[in-house]
Structures are given as structure tokens and as C-alpha cells.
Design brief:
The chain is built from seven helices and three strands. With about 180 residues, the chain is mainly α.
Length: about 180
């Protein structure tokens, strides 16, 4: 396999975005390559195509497996593991959003809830308590919405996504 300029551009951009998402650039580039590749790739091929050290690729693959974004496949007659990204884009987005929710959003929601509870008894002025409460209530509302939508069957979720902002045409108070 050779990388075309478009493939390189995609991989480089995914790597740049990865650093903004809190993921190491080379880890994001590995994921981008596996995402594009129609066939599972061994680590050696990944390292060669991306110009990365084999040890860096191994570390990146372990991280991606921890995120459940990459799976390992075995082939008869080949001792090497072959890696592939989650193929279904809906599953891929769900894994990323769900993982970020668990690692980032839920701990923040819990911290705000704890802060609100302490603020009720530690002399925090009412104006501050109200602002903390508003923060918690809004965050909890979004989190509950997310959990409710995740319980819907996939076809319903896809229909909601396709409907998108068009739903506003059906709601009262539209401008």
C-alpha cells in the first residue's frame, strides 16, 4: 500500500485533531490509517507507512485497543497480529462519545454535584450556590438526554440525527 496525497492529508489532519482531543498525535495517525485501510494491517506495515518507530506503534495500538477503537485479527500461517479500526461509523462515534462522557463529563458532573452539596453547608453565598446549582442542573439535563437517546434503537437514533435541526419546524415558538 502506498499513501496518496489525500490519504496523507487525512492522516495528518486526524493527527492534529487528536492532539486537540487529548490523544497523542501518532496514536491519532495510527487510528486514521486503520480507519482508511480496507484491510487489517500488521504493526510493521503501520510503522513503515507512517514513518513511526515500531515501539511507538505498539504503544499506540494498545492505547487504541483500550479505547475499543481498534481490534486485533489473526491470520492462518501468520504469527503477526493484524489491526483494524471499528468499521461502522455509527459505532465509532458512539465509542468516542461514550468514552469521553465517562472520562470527562461524568467526573465533572459528579464534582459539581459534590461542590453543590458542600456549598449548602460551608457558608458559600447564595448567589454562588445558585450558579453552581444552575451549572449542575444544566449539565445533568444534557447527560440525561444523552442517556435517553442512547437507549433508543439505532434506527430511531439515526432518524433523529437526520431530522436534526429540522425538528424546530415542528415545535411551538419557532421564529
Amino acid at each position: 500500500m502506498e499513501l496518496t496525497p489525500s490519504m496523507e492529508s487525512f492522516i495528518l489532519h486526524w493527527g492534529e485533531m487528536g492532539s486537540k482531543w487529548g490523544v497523542n498525535r501518532s496514536v491519532a495517525q495510527i487510528h486514521a490509517l486503520l480507519h482508511l485501510s480496507p484491510e487489517p494491517l500488521p504493526a510493521e506495515t503501520i510503522a513503515e507507512l507512517l514513518g513511526l518507530a515500531r515501539s511507538n506503534v505498539s504503544t499506540g495500538l494498545k492505547e487504541l485497543q483500550g479505547w475499543k477503537l481498534v481490534q486485533t485479527e489473526r491470520r492462518l500461517g501468520d504469527r503477526r497480529d493484524h489491526f483494524t479500526s471499528v468499521r461502522d461509523m455509527f459505532d465509532l462515534v458512539h465509542i468516542v462519545v461514550s468514552g469521553r462522557r465517562e472520562r470527562e463529563y461524568v467526573p465533572t458532573l459528579e464534582a459539581v454535584a459534590d461542590t453543590l452539596e458542600r456549598a449548602r453547608t460551608d457558608g458559600t453565598p447564595e448567589a454562588f450556590r445558585k450558579r453552581i446549582a444552575e451549572t449542575y442542573e444544566t449539565m445533568a439535563l444534557f447527560d440525561q438526554w444523552y442517556r435517553d437517546v442512547q437507549r433508543l434503537p439505532r434506527p430511531v437514533q439515526k432518524s433523529l440525527l437526520k431530522l436534526g435541526a429540522g425538528i424546530t419546524k415542528l415545535l411551538p415558538g419557532k421564529s
